[in-house]
Design brief:
Elements lengths: L2 E7 L12 H4 L5 E7 L4 H11 L26 H10 L20 H7 L4 E5 L6 H4 L11 H9 L4 E5 L5 H9 L8 H6 L5
Length: about 200
């Protein structure tokens, strides 16, 4: 199971959504962090708390929600359709990443934030081109079309990507050609002069 964190610096994005909390609207919060335990639901959280012998830290977060991520047509949903539902609020077919059933790109929350000039980041403990992280930044008809996913993600906008896996040099070139700097150690992040 992978953990994905989508970080949106959305100061000012509140106006785009009518249901943003009063605290956010008052400027109490500057950033939003959406953490996704890929394949995790309430029962997995409960099991984690039972195993730990106490409530998990995330169970004490002031804002929590659940989302239905059903596929548009299939009874069992895959992670591509689920990530698309989380990132866009729209249902799609299994295997499709941020595309609607008619093969049109869907606007993701990262697209919206980037379009407003906001900085965003995607952190993955799985391959960056996995269906869940790509649901927020890439677009493809087929979740296995790695090159397409990474090419669309690299041109999304103000997105920084962090993954715990070293990416194949062929795929790294997609990002370097789009102006990204590839770093492999935490120390290199603070030394970087690139904004990507």
């Amino acid at each position: 199971t992978a953990t994905i964190a989508v970080i949106l610096t959305i100061n000012g994005l509140a106006g785009a959504y009518s249901n943003v909390s009063d605290d956010y609207a008052k400027g109490k919060y500057k950033n939003v962090i959406l953490m996704i335990g890929d394949g995790m639901g309430p029962e997995q959280v409960k099991a984690g708390a039972i195993y730990k012998g106490e409530a998990l830290t995330m169970q004490g977060f002031p804002y929590q929600t659940t989302v239905q991520t059903r596929s548009a047509f299939d009874e069992v949903t895959d992670s591509a359709a689920a990530a698309t539902a989380l990132a866009t609020g729209k249902r799609t077919s299994n295997g499709m990443v941020a595309k609607d059933p008619n093969y049109l790109n869907l606007e993701t929350i990262v697209d919206i934030a980037s379009g407003m000039g906001k900085r965003t980041g995607i952190i993955a403990t799985e391959e960056l081109y996995g269906a869940t992280p790509m649901g927020f930044s890439g677009h493809a008809y087929n979740r296995n079309d790695t090159a397409c996913l990474l090419e669309t993600a690299a041109t999304t906008g103000n997105v920084n990507f962090f993954a715990s896996y070293v990416m194949d040099t062929t795929y790294q070139s997609i990002f370097t050609n789009a102006g990204y700097e590839n770093v492999t150690a935490v120390e290199e992040i603070s030394e970087s002069t690139s904004d990507k």
